[in-house]
Each structure stands twice: as C-alpha cells, then as structure tokens.
What does this fold into?
Amino acid sequence: MGTVTGDDRFIELDDVEKVFQVRRRVGLLRRERHEVRAVDGIGFRVARGEMVGYIGPNGAGKSTTIKMLTGILTPSGGRLRVAGIDPSRERTRLAHRIGVVFGQRTTLWWDLPLRDSYRLMHRMYRIPDRRYRENLDRCVELLDLGALLEVPVRQLSLGQRMRGDIAAALLHDPEVLYLDEPTIGLDVISKARVRQFLKELNAERGTTVLLTTHDLTDIEQLCRRVMVIDHGRLMYDGSLAGLHEAGASERMLVIDLERELPPIALEPVPGVEPGAQPVLRTVKVEGPRQWLAFPASASAAPLVARIAAAYPLVDLSVREPDIEAVIARMYASGS
Ligand SMILES: Nc1ncnc2c1ncn2[C@@H]1O[C@H](COP(=O)(O)OP(=O)(O)OP(=O)(O)O)[C@@H](O)[C@H]1O
Ligand SMILES: [Mg+2]
It folds into this structure.
C-alpha cells in the first residue's frame, strides 16, 4: 500500500546479481564448491506499457533474471523493484500484479482439464466473477482454446499447452507479463497467433511485457526495444535498428546478370571521398548470379543504378539484414 512508482521505472534493476553455489564432483569422492555468476551486475528500467525483448545465448542469465523478477529467486546483490515491490520479500503481493509464462514448463495442473485449472486460478487470485469470465472468453477466442477447455493438460500438444499457459497467466489482469520463450516449439500458425495476441494485449490493455525468446522474429514483430544479455551482463539496450548498427549489419544485393562474369566491381564515384562511398563486397558468385553485401545504412538505389550502368543486368533483389547473423556476430565479439 502507498507505494509510489514512477511509470517510467515500472520495472527497476540496479546492479542486480545472482550467484549460485554449486558443488561439482571431481574424482570419485571429492566435491568442489564453486560459484556460477548467472547474473553479474545488471541494471535497467522498463516503463509501464513497454514491450521489451530480452535476448541472449544459452546460459546467459535470462531465466534467472525473470525468476528474480517474479520473486522465485532472491538476488545475491543489488536492488530490484517491480511496481515498487521487492519481489522476493513480497512475492504473494506481487503475484497479483504479474503474470508469467515459462515455455519450458507449465503452471497448469497436469491431470486437470484446462477449464479446471482456470477455475482454480479464479479462486487463488480471487478474481471477480465478471472479470474472470470476460478475460477467459477473450483468451479462449483469441488463442483459439474453445475445443481444448475440457482436455486434460497432459493430453495437449506443446503448442496447445503453451496457449493454455498464456491464458492462465492473464486471467487476473496482470500489469506485467513475463514471457520466457513463449513460442518455443510452436508451429508457424500458432506463433503468429500468439504474437498477434501479445500485440493486442500490449496495445489495448497497456500490459508491460518482458519477452525472452530465441526466435528473433518474435522480437522483430513485437519489440521496439531489445536488451541483449551475455554471461550475466547487459551487452546492449536499445532499438532493433541500433542493434543492426552495433553488429555492423549488412544488406545483400542478389544480382542476376545476362551471363557469367567476374565478380562485380564498381569504379569509385569521382568527386566523392573514398571513405564516404559504400563498400560493395562480393560474397558469392554462382554462374550468372552474384551476391553483394553492402552496409545496411547505405541506400541501395544508387548502387543498383551504378551496377545497371556498367553490367548487363537481368534481375535483382535486396535482402534485409539477417538479425540472427547480427546477433551471432555480437555474441562472438562480446565474449
Ligand atoms: N538453480 C541453479 N543452480 C545452479 N546454477 C544455475 C541454476 N539456475 C541457473 N544456473 C546457471 O546460471 C546460468 C544462467 O542460467 P539461465 O537459466 O538464467 O540462462 P538462460 O539465459 O535462461 O539460458 P537459456 O537460453 O538456455 O534458457 C547458467 O550457467 C546456468 O547453468
Ligand atoms: Mg532460459
């Protein structure tokens, strides 16, 4: 009660750490203790209503962060607040205000039909009847759960269960939704449906969303802001476009020539400083087709015009930078 939180720092982390003490067997009898610094001094703010991607390689510390944000894990150091609440100290109070989906495991009751799991949550969270019914109806419609409500959770496919889990996380109108790999193992159609649902949830209800995923299309379609974590540290926090720049991202011209020719090389434009001219890099030549990389920040049109003037061009296309490659480069250079 009475906790005042600025909406611009709805989620707030300062120098947060999580160190696990693990005992490793060395030899037959001896065990060695050592520390795993899963989260190693992370700080960020998320404003109310933001939808932020939280990405990084396996073991980077993403799930550990989310567990601290829900209060499941207590930080070893630093300060953490969600809606002004210290999650590990007031986990129950916070539970009424947050929703969480762990793609890797379910929060539903394994042997119960979906509908019964939802009824239990109705009680647990003391959701007003009308609100509950409205939210359930909405989730059932948008996540296409109608035919699944009477099916025991253990009989659901992964994608069906995931949609069931997302609904479960939202019945009590949480202000924040943490999603830890919500599209893992989903087919293309289910992924699209889940993304659309999240987009609407964020737009219409203003739900704050923190999204962890290995599918970068999720991020491209949902998040204007993305944070990259590696080895427990924040490597990047900014726009997706900025991430491309940070990874020195390139676009690709795919050129079809009339016949097989040596790699395309353009004469420098007279009167323009060499450093100011975009560099074309031949990536591959396959018969009459050539792949040419150029900086993503450069405009394609003048390059195309110059190629067309100097070469017998039949067809061409421009490929957008592959964010996957950008991030792989970033992970590689960061560690
Ligand atoms: N309960 C635990 N005890 C000991 N070590 C742990 C524990 N939980 C996580 N770790 C370690 O902490 C590090 C971060 O794990 P975490 O699960 O946060 O990674 P992640 O970024 O979610 O990775 P992934 O993409 O594989 O899900 C890993 O090295 C992991 O082995
Ligand atoms: Mg994880």
User: Anything to note?
Assistant: The radius of gyration is 25 Å.
